[in-house]
Amino acid sequence: MIGTDIEHLMKLLARLPGMGPRSARRAALHLLKNRESLMLPLSQALGRAAEVITECPECHNLDTCAPCAICADNTRDRSLMCVVEDISDLWAIEKTGSFRGYYHVLGGTLSALDGITPEDLSIPHLTRRAADDAVREVILALNATIDGQTTAHYIADCLQTCHVGISQLAHGVPIGGQIDYLDDGTLSTALRARKSV
């Protein structure tokens, strides 16, 4: 018989992405067995994060300051804005160190099935930001899904009046990928997006 507090902990953990009931049970047990070294520091870190982390009013990133450290960095290139679906996408691009412009997090993609409209995303805010004279190019770094591509087309239409260049991330053969293992969609996209050598 599992106590109600332990059961509650497991139910909360199971609500995390990638955690099912079994993974939540293992995680709860691991936390309980390691209270001093893991559970207490984790609970303190979660409490502190809930207190101090806020959404950036500019790009919608998460940080302990507003605007976030990226938006507040004057050494970045103000002429470039990279549009991403989610904060995790921003963090992934930032981790590469290959982009020195600014970001805009949409908060998802348009989806007729799920009833997600432009007003549910930060698209109106994006068009206001892109209208700034300093912005010269908007890079649409959206996932290569139907919803991602629909959102990219919608944003491109919205930005036509902003007089900015609009580009999209390349899609196709991944580095280290083997052609015979690629799906038809990826291979077709790679062929259409081919470039001169």
What does this molecule look like?
The chain is an alpha/beta fold. It has two domains: about 50 residues, RecR Domain 1 (Helicase, Ruva Protein, domain 3); about 90 residues, Dna Topoisomerase Vi A Subunit, Chain: A, domain 2. About 45% of the residues lie in helices and about 10% in strands. The protein has eight helices and six strands. The strands form two sheets. The protein has a four-stranded parallel beta sheet. The chain has a two-stranded antiparallel ribbon with strand order 1-2. α5 links the parallel β3 and β4. α1 crosses α2. The longest helix is centred in the first third of the chain and has 18 residues.
CA radius of gyration: 21 Å
Helix percent reads 40-55%
Q: Which stretches are low in confidence, meaning pLDDT under 50 for 5 or more residues running?
A: none
What is the total tally of β strands? Answer: 6
Cα separation of the termini: 66 Å
The name of the CATH architecture of the largest domain is 3-Layer(aba) Sandwich
Indicate the CATH topology of the largest domain: Dna Topoisomerase Vi A Subunit, Chain: A, domain 2
Read across the widest sheet, the strand sequence of neighbours is: 4-3-5-6
Number of helices: 8
Strand content: 5-15%
Order of helices and strands: HHHEEHEHEHEHEH
What is the domain tally? 2
Instruction: Specify the biggest β-sheet.
Output: 4 strands, parallel
Structural class: alpha/beta
